Structures are given as C-alpha cells and as structure tokens.
Amino acid sequence: MSWDFSTDPDFQEQLDWMSDFVRGEIWPLETIWRELGMDGLREAIAPLAEQVRDRGLWAAHLPPELGGQGMGQVRLGLMHEILGSSPIAPLAFGNAAPDSGNAEILALAGTPEQKDRWLHPLLAGDLRSAFSMTEPNTPGSDPTQLCTRAVREGEEWVIDGRKWFSSNGSIADFLIVMAVTDPDARPAQRASMFIVPRDTPGVEVLRDVPTMEHPWEQFGAYGGHAEIAYNDVRVPADALLGAVGEGFVLAQQRLGPGRIHHCMRWLGVARRAFDMMCERATYRSAHGSLLAEKQTVQNWIADSAAEMQAARLMTLHAAWVMDTRGARDARIDIALIKFFGAKVLHDVIDRALQVHGALGYSTDLPLEQMYRFARGARFYDGPDEVHRQSVARRILQAYSPPPDGIPSEHLPTRRDAARERFAHLLGALTAND
Ligand SMILES: Cc1cc2nc3c(=O)[nH]c(=O)nc-3n(C[C@H](O)[C@H](O)[C@H](O)COP(=O)(O)OP(=O)(O)OC[C@H]3O[C@@H](n4cnc5c(N)ncnc54)[C@H](O)[C@@H]3O)c2cc1C
C-alpha cells in the first residue's frame, strides 16, 4: 500500500495553465459581467472556451465517450479548486452547475434519443438546464415528502406542483423535474425524474427568488433561483428519465461527485479570501504595528491555513475513495466534507472580512459577496445538520451498548479484570515485598 500526495507532472502543467488562465482572462470579466448581460458574457466567454477545448479541458467531468476527459474525481477536484476562485470560470470550462450535474444524470440514465436531444447540445453549451426538486411547502432536507405529482395518462405524464430554488430555472431550456409517481411505494421509490422543456404549456416561471446572494429583484439572469409552477404540464412518456421510482437513486448519483466539486470550488473561494487577508495584514498598521504583527490576526491566518489544508485533504481523500472504491464507499467522506467544507469557507471569508474593516464590508471588495455566497453552501445539496446526522448514524452502526451497561473503559471494572488476569504476577510481587 502506498500513500502518494503528488500530482502527475503533465496534469500539474494543465493546472498551472488553468491558474494563469482563470486569473488573467476570467477574473477581469467578473467586474463587468452584470453590465455585459447574459449575451455579452457568452460572447466574451466563447473565445476563452475555445482555448479550453484546445487544451482538452472542456466538460472534463464526463467520460471520454461523451466528449469529456474521464479524469476521475481527484483530478476534477484539483481542477475545480482553481475554477471555484471565480463564479464565472466554470462557464468557460463547460462544467458550470447545475448543467454539469444534469449532464451527469443524462449520461447515466438517458436513452440514446434523450442524449441526442438534450445531453449533446447541453455539453456543446447550446442549451441550459435546471434541476427542479425543492418545493416551498415541503422540506427539501427530507425529499421523501415531495408532493409535486406526475400521473400517467395514456402516452403522457401530467405534472402538477410548485418548485422553488431551481437554480438557473429562468434561463434554462429544459428542467429536470422530480415528481412523485407512486405515492404508495416505499419512501425512496416514490419519485421519478422527467425532462421538461421550459416552454411546455403549464410551466410558469414565476420569479427568480431574491436571496441573500442576490438580494435585488432580477429575472432571467445566470445564477438566479427560480420559483416555478407546474400546472397540468403534459410531457410525452419518453420524458421519463431512468425508470419509474428511480428518482432518488439518480439524485444520489448526481449529488456525490457534485458535492466533491462544490467543496473544491469553495476552497478556491476561501483561498482568494485568505490571500486578501494576508495581503491586507502586510500593510495596514494600527496601534503602533502592522496587523500582521497582531497575535489575533496571526491566529486567524494560521487557523485558516490549517482549516483549508484539512478541508482540502479531506475533499481529495473523498475523491480518491470515489475513484478507487466507488460512490457508495465514499458516502461518509462526502457527507463529512460537505458540512466541514462549508464552515471552513464561511470562517475564512469572515476573518478576511474582519481584517479589512469597513472596506471588507463594502462592495469595493468581493469579500461581502463571497460571504453572502458562503452562507448558501450550508443549505444546498443538503443542510449541515442532515449530513452530520447521516455521518453520526453510520459511525454509530459500528457501536453497541456495553454488557451490563458498564462503560467499556470503566477503570474499576477493568482494574478488577486485570487483577484477576495477572494475579500470578501480583501474587509474586506481594511475596517479594
Ligand atoms: C443557493 C441555493 C441553491 C439551490 N439550488 C437548488 C436547485 O438547483 N434545485 C433544487 O431542487 N434545490 C435547490 N436548492 C434548495 C436546497 O436543496 C434546499 O434548500 C435544501 O435541501 C434544504 O431544504 P429546505 O430549504 O426546504 O429546508 P428544510 O428542509 O425546511 O430544512 C430547514 C432546516 O431544518 C433543519 N433540519 C432539517 N433536517 C434536520 C435534521 N435531520 N436534523 C436537524 N436539523 C434538521 C436544518 O437546520 C435545515 O436548514 C438550493 C438552495 C440554495 C440555498
């Protein structure tokens, strides 16, 4: 068995290229992308995406037969760490959420016809998609309670219900909708997924919900979270994705790798905030010394470095388990990094913001935006508490109550047992006294 923390030199070269490219070509666009609008942004990104394609890095999350690179999760993770530094970098690499996760579901469960119609144009960047599962009136953290229904009528499925927080729903060409197909089945087999073109009659995108991340009213912007009513939406039988009742299985398969990528992207954001914190500490002076010389600031820098390193190693380890043993074996590792990584992201940004004082709180720096973004990380793909609960439950499966209710480590009990076991030695010692 070997432990190896090195990166192939060839891939390291690609990572170095990505770092320079994202910093040099994409960071500048961040400052004007709202002015550019969606069409302008697409135009600005098109030549960059060409360069990414030429390097063989486009849509790298997919297997080679679908035009991806078949890199495995560790390499993808390292890549996402770089792309995560900018909210728009994933667009230039053909792996922006939620399109990347939706492409993975289509690759996994789509029929050849569904792949031709939806997956290939999605990968080419010609279509946009959304994942429409969470509902305003049922708990997203317990999706077995979903109430959006899909009922089979002849050769059609009829969908009724209301969703919200369908990210990119207002700019999507199609939505992957989770709906209950058999309310009487076991909880995990009640729901199925459907591909619903957004222009299907009855699909009503009501609004992009203003959020902590985007508090202003907007509609039809990249990164919006749509509230959508599905009123008597009729789709053909072949809109079903995967088998009837397979919705949760597919959702799990989509979410596993997606969480690793989120966690690595968060590290990219945290690293950027950390760099800002360190830079500021080197020149801001108060009460007779630089911030860099204050012990509290030094503690924040050291704690942040340690926490980011821990989150990074945990995330790469989860990716490695996934690559070597499969998604099932990686479930605890993925749940661990989901809540741990979200906290590290938050805490590093919070400290960086504090070190900058009012400047950090202002919109003259990206820190306040990062801070608002970070808060959402504790909800999407499952709130912290649910991941903690599933980690604790799985860990507890390896434990059972001690015999007679006496703790295994109870010293008087252990001492009595040891005295009995080693009586001959204790007896000899007494005899020698
Ligand atoms: C930025 C963002 C993007 C999103 N994008 C999408 C998307 O594209 N598609 C989509 O379908 N959904 C999306 N969501 C929704 C997200 O998946 C849900 O918010 C999440 O699953 C939680 O569901 P809920 O909001 O209904 O909270 P609830 O399920 O009502 O939970 C509320 C709180 O209850 C507590 N809680 C729940 N269960 C437990 C437990 N077992 N133990 C202890 N406490 C518990 C937690 O504190 C939790 O935060 C997005 C959300 C955000 C914030």
List the helices and strands and how they pair.
Elements: H1 9-30, H2 33-54, H3 73-83, H4 89-92, H5 99-109, H6 112-124, E1 129-132, E2 149-153, E3 156-167, E4 174-180, E5 191-197, E6 203-208, E7 225-236, E8 240-241, H7 247-283, E9 285-286, E10 289-290, H8 295-325, H9 331-355, H10 357-361, H11 367-376, H12 384-396, H13 411-421, H14 423-432
Parallel strand pairs: 1-4
Antiparallel strand pairs: 2-3, 3-7, 4-5, 5-8, 6-7, 9-10
Bound molecules: flavin-adenine dinucleotide.
Would you write up a description of this structure?
This protein is of the alpha+beta class and 433 residues long. The protein is built from 14 helices and 10 strands. The protein has helices spanning 9-30, 33-54, 73-83, 89-92, 99-109, 112-124, 247-283, 295-325, 331-355, 357-361, 367-376, 384-396, 411-421, 423-432, and strands at 129-132, 149-153, 156-167, 174-180, 191-197, 203-208, 225-236, 240-241, 285-286, 289-290. A hairpin with a 2-residue loop joins strand 9 (285-286) and strand 10. The mean pLDDT is 94. The chain binds flavin-adenine dinucleotide. Flavin-adenine dinucleotide binds at residues 98, 131-134, 139-141, 165-167, 225, 376, 379-380, 382-383, 385-386, 389.
Strand arrangement across the biggest beta sheet: 1-4-5-8
Q: Could you tell me the mean pLDDT?
A: 94
Which term fits the overall shape?
A: globular
Count of individual beta strands:
10
How much of the polypeptide forms β-strand, as a percent range? 5-15%
Which quaternary structure do these chains form?
Answer: single chain
What string gives the helices and strands in order? Answer: HHHHHHEEEEEEEEHEEHHHHHHH
- The rounded distance between the terminal residues' Cα atoms is 51 Å
Bound molecules: flavin-adenine dinucleotide
- Poorly predicted segments: none
**Major sheet description:** 4 strands, mixed
Output the radius of gyration: 26 Å
DSSP summary: helix tally: 14
Structural class: alpha+beta
Helix content: 40-55%
